[in-house]
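Structure in, sequence out. Go:
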């Protein structure tokens, strides 16, 4: 997919914002595409990881923030482990999600932004994920209450999901992480 570059010279606003939020120097990328070759979701998205980096370097703000990979990235860090320059793509994706939400452009197809919101909210409140609370909030947000409800008893029986949240996490540490990200 070719990238169309406009002739208007623009400031690197998005690139600087991503660098500030993530702490990653995107300009170090060699465009070797090892991140894309190892990415488990690269075949499912229109814009692979290496192209996100390229778009950032070319100051393509809108097409980068609105990219489907921003919300589809699994943050598995396979790209980071394969990158010869140790560029943390998961941190870049987190930064792009934050920017997308701030700009109110989080309109990805499906419910990925909603899931992301409730996942992070449960981590912020409980210090770790609370699956049942996250699922309940997500179901209310999607108004799809009974999809996969038949799997719930088996998950309880096999202890794959807890009825009550765990409070074992270091709450001060988690709070500090969320303050640093914002």
């Amino acid at each position: 997919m070719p990238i169309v570059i406009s002739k208007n010279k623009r400031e690197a606003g998005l690139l600087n914002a991503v660098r500030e939020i993530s702490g990653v120097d995107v300009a170090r990328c060699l465009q070797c595409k090892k991140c894309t070759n190892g990415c488990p979701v690269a075949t499912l998205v229109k814009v692979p990881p290496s192209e996100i980096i390229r778009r950032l370097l070319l100051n393509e703000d809108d097409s980068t923030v609105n990219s489907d990979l921003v919300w589809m990235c699994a943050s598995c860090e396979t790209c980071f482990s394969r990158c010869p320059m140790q560029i943390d793509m998961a941190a870049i994706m987190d930064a792009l999600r934050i920017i997308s939400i701030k700009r109110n452009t989080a309109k990805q197809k499906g419910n990925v932004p909603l899931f992301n919101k409730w996942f992070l909210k449960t981590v912020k409140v409980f210090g770790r994920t609370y699956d049942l609370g996250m699922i309940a909030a997500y179901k209310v947000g999607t108004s799809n209450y009974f999809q996969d409800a038949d799997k719930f008893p088996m998950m309880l029986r096999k202890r794959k999901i807890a009825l009550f949240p765990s409070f074992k996490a270091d709450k001060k540490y988690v709070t500090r992480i969320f303050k640093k990200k914002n």
